[in-house]
Amino acid sequence: MRLWLRSYDARATRHAHAGFHQVVLPVAGALRMEIGRSADAPCAGTVREGTGVLVPCGEPHRFSADGANRFVVMDLPDTALHPAGFPHDAVRRAVAAPFFAVGTGLRHLIHYLASETKDGPVDPGTAHHASGLLLDALSRSLTRPAAMPEPVARALDLLHRHYAEPIAVADLARAAGLSVSRFHEVFRDATGRSPAAALAEIRLDRAVELLRGTDLPIAEVALAAGYSDQTALTRALRRRRGVTPAGLRRSGRS
What we know:
The chain has helices at residues 90-96, 104-116, 124-141, 150-162, 169-176, 180-191, 195-213, 218-224, 230-241, 245-253; strands at residues 2-6, 13-15, 21-28, 31-35, 43-47, 51-55, 61-65, 70-76, 99-101, 120-121. The protein folds into two domains: 2-141, Jelly Rolls; 150-253, Arc Repressor Mutant, subunit A (Orthogonal Bundle), CATH 1.10.10.60. Strand 4 (31-35) and strand 5 (43-47) form a beta hairpin. The model has no long low-confidence stretch (mean pLDDT 83). The strands form two sheets. Strands 9-6-3-8-1-10 form a six-stranded antiparallel β-sheet. Strands 2-7-4-5 form a four-stranded antiparallel β-sheet, with no helix packed on it. The chain contains ten helices and ten strands.
């Protein structure tokens, strides 16, 4: 199994994978994808917060992304999808319904890998230890009946586009087309967390990306990721990820 951290650009690309299946899991941003041999009626969807995709071996697909984005990508030989306990019909079902809901355990693994790894191939030691956990969590996610509900997906898109700005729950509910009370219920049922917790994770992911990938001063990183100041970013990183901005930047360059 090959494991990557990868970003995509806006150029629409179409190809197929020979010899392996591919799973794309969201860290940040959105990846639009059309899968299938029929140009008239491909299976279309978006990989974004709460939704992943399994592209079967040999299945043509077209994809593109806008803005900042990052994904965990797994290239899986056919035999990797048949360990004990893994749903043997996962590939057959993925041809008709390739998009699936990302469960809580899988989401935690995705964000752990993203926080510990730069873009590109995951180092062999980390990939070896992560592969079994990822396949186990993936097997559970693939048994879920549906991907992210569209109202929640619209709200998540708003969060990903405007995470650096003040966003009220009423704004999210309006984007979802729901009342505030109903939105809270639907959002938590679909994602396993509150809108505020989702926004906090999106902001942290962006801060981590900037700390690892740029030379921006930490105070500027904090503002770019939606924090009021460097102190607020430091407090959030220490509480949720157990690291400081300076420590994260040093580890990213070691």
